[in-house]
Amino acid sequence: MITDSFDLLFRLKNLGYDNVSRDPWWWPNSGRFETLVGAILTQNTRWDRVERSLENLRAEELLSADRLARYPLLSLEALIRPSGFHRAKARNLQELSRKILEDFGSFEEFRSGVERSWLLERRGVGPETADAILNYACYREAFVVDSYTARLLQALGYQLESYDAVQTWILEGIEGREGELFPDLGKAQSYARSHGMIVEYCKANREGRRVLVDPLLAEDT
Q1: How far apart, in Å, do the first and last CA atoms of the chain sit?
Q2: What is the count of structural domains for the chain?
Q3: Alpha helix locations (H) across 142-204?
Q4: What is the pTM of this model?
Q5: Whether 118 and 211 share a structural domain
Q6: What does the pLDDT look like over 85-102, one tens digit per residue?
């Protein structure tokens, strides 16, 4: 039985779900404005669709706050259509880009100065997106939990019904022990790689939307 989040993450790492072939922070091209854009585009869609939208934006040299803020909205909608909900996402991305420039002056200043409360005040940014931006774009100590996390915990017998409840369960189990999971990484990067392990596991062990529990993960220690 999985006793806490440290137990879960320790087993995932031992089973090889820390994908070291990816970006050092797991999220592709982390630490860039592109990461923020991806965090918006990935809402309610698959990552392969997001990649198509990012390729379109990259081809038009739009992966910067100043370019995105000034780009015609209808043209932006067309470029990100592969990600779905393209009208809402285009509007939200453009509004967010303009607000970043208005309040911080640049994406670099945004990375060092933004707070979670500021992000949650923006249209189209909920807790998961805010934490993804903070952790993967800004390299802050924010642990992202998502539908994969919730489904895995449900498969393991934990009934946690809110984002905050799932995040609290994760954080309580690893508090002060991040260095045991990733001795060479700081807390923020440990959070990033830990969330990545959960996603990697769930993608490899699922049947439709249901997460299957590998016997090696569920067995008693």
Answers
A1: 8
A2: 2
A3: 147-155, 163-174, 178-181, 187-204
A4: 0.95
A5: no
A6: 999 999 999 999 999 999
